[in-house]
């Protein structure tokens, strides 16, 4: 189950990244425990890989163990409650919800990645967030010798804007299963709303190039002084609180279309940096730093990255 020198590029939506010294594809809880034992034996750093949708993986790769919790299942407990494996893709979950007339995640239409990754980063779009349907989460503490399972309810997950306890004090924990609480709906309505979100992404996002979604979080209006908010006050939206879309700021700085090596700030959606074919992680890093610098010069706000860097 453990492999050596596996290219991470194949697991990245960016198609960027060097090799993992060790790679472990775990399909159940016991295999996760086995991987953690191996990690302690080798005394190496650990990285948890989900769907590879928001990761900027270094060209040098990762010198420790990359563990992919690949538990892919959906179990219906009652009319509106599901147990979902962390490795289940958001797409597969949505197809299940349509088939079984369950509403509550229509906002996620077209969202890539896994359920575990979505919970870790409290994924959201179109005013919805996954925290709105999470009832319970089970994780395993990677730092404990015996592989201790931890159970949390929604409040204990400490969801915030694109974050959760799993990105904070519990970032050593591996999400393995999530309980979702949905509501009954009409199949036609659920399917229509999901397709609307998919169509929006196709129309507005650079889906024809490798990318990892939005590079930066949108900016809380409270971070602007009155002087610098004035030029963008008509672009404020609720997501889920009042923010200025970072794509607007980047566009107003005239950065859309800027290129460095094989990476480009997307003209279609400037909060995406796309791989035009042969981008390196250094190319992307250069553009990230460039955007931060120019946006600060014009608006006096510091952009916060939404992506995760792996090195």
TrEMBL record:
InterPro entries annotated for this entry? Answer: FAD-bd_PCMH (IPR016166), FAD-bd_PCMH-like_sf (IPR036318), FAD-bd_PCMH_sub1 (IPR016167), FAD-bd_PCMH_sub2 (IPR016169), MurB (IPR003170), MurB_C (IPR011601), MurB_C_sf (IPR036635), Oxid_FAD_bind_N (IPR006094)
Pfam families to which the protein is assigned, alphabetical: FAD_binding_4, MurB_C
Annotated Gene Ontology MF terms?
FAD binding; UDP-N-acetylmuramate dehydrogenase activity
**Which catalytic residues are annotated?**
162, 214, 306
Domain of life here? Answer: Bacteria
The entry's family comment says: Belongs to the MurB family.
Q: Please explain the role this protein plays, according to its UniProt record.
A: Cell wall formation.
Instruction: Please report the name of this protein according to its UniProt entry.
Output: UDP-N-acetylenolpyruvoylglucosamine reductase
Annotated organism of origin: Candidatus Harrisonbacteria bacterium RIFOXYD1_FULL_40_9
Gene name tied to this protein: murB
